[in-house]
Amino acid sequence: MSEPLRTIERVLDDAVALHRRVRSESLDAVARCAGLITAAHRTGGKVLVFGNGGSAADAQHFAAELVGRFERDRAGMAAIALTTDSCVLTSVANDYGFARIFARQVEALGRAGDVAVAISTSGTSANVIEGLREAQARGLRTVAVTGRDGGALGALAEIHINVPHETTCRVQEVHMTLLHAICEIVERTY
């Protein structure tokens, strides 16, 4: 077997093993998150979701699945990825510092009863932590989707969905699977 084929097998084996580990440890938190989002939508609330880098992409993907559709046609659900408006991101970073880019948007857009979903593979991103702190201060329900040991972000959230692994790409793979599971549950109960 060639080296590239061995690499592909190892990557898939590692991903499967981590999915199985999370399956045995994190199902309750995932279901509780879906319940929060469903309840928020039923009462006119919205989801604010945010993260950096690959987690920003996950935030955008998650919001798109809720606003548009996941697997079936249904009414749109209010969800905003706080990672997408370059004018807001750069003006807030310039005026208040990069650590405030999500907190300022939560301050402007978040209302009690909304759900803030903060995504960080390390659980230590200062701007993501500040965004979740602002969400708590404003009465939003809070969810952290993390990797490693969850860091300060995981400890801060009402619901903590953790993928206990050190490798960012493996964590992100499982994050997307779990976010898709949340979308499916929410869509079926909406």
Describe this structure in words.
This protein has 190 residues and is of the alpha/beta class. It has a single domain (3-189), classed as Rossmann fold, CATH 3.40.50. Helix 3 (54-67) runs parallel beside helix 8 and helix 5 (101-109) runs parallel beside helix 6 (126-137). The chain is globular. It contains eight helices and five strands; from the N terminus they run ααβαβααβαβαβα. The protein has helices at 3-25, 27-42, 54-67, 86-96, 101-109, 126-137, 151-156, 168-189; strands at residues 47-50, 79-81, 115-120, 141-147, 159-163. The model has no long low-confidence stretch (mean pLDDT 97). It starts with a helix and ends with a helix. A five-stranded parallel sheet has the order 2-1-3-4-5, sandwiched between helices. Helix 6 (126-137) links the parallel strand 3 and strand 4 (141-147).
Features:
190 residues, 5 strands, globular, five-stranded parallel sheet, alpha/beta, Rossmann fold
Q: What is the H-and-E element order?
A: HHEHEHHEHEHEH
Helical percentage:
55-70%
Average predicted local confidence, pLDDT? 97
Number of helices: 8
Number of strands: 5
Oligomeric category? single chain
Structurally, how many domains make up the residues? Answer: 1
CATH class type = Alpha Beta
Query: What general outline do the C-alpha atoms trace?
Result: globular
Radius of gyration: 17 Å
How much of the residues is beta strand, in percent? 5-15%
Detail the poorly predicted runs: none
Strand count, sense and barrel status of the largest sheet are: 5 strands, parallel
CATH architecture designation: 3-Layer(aba) Sandwich
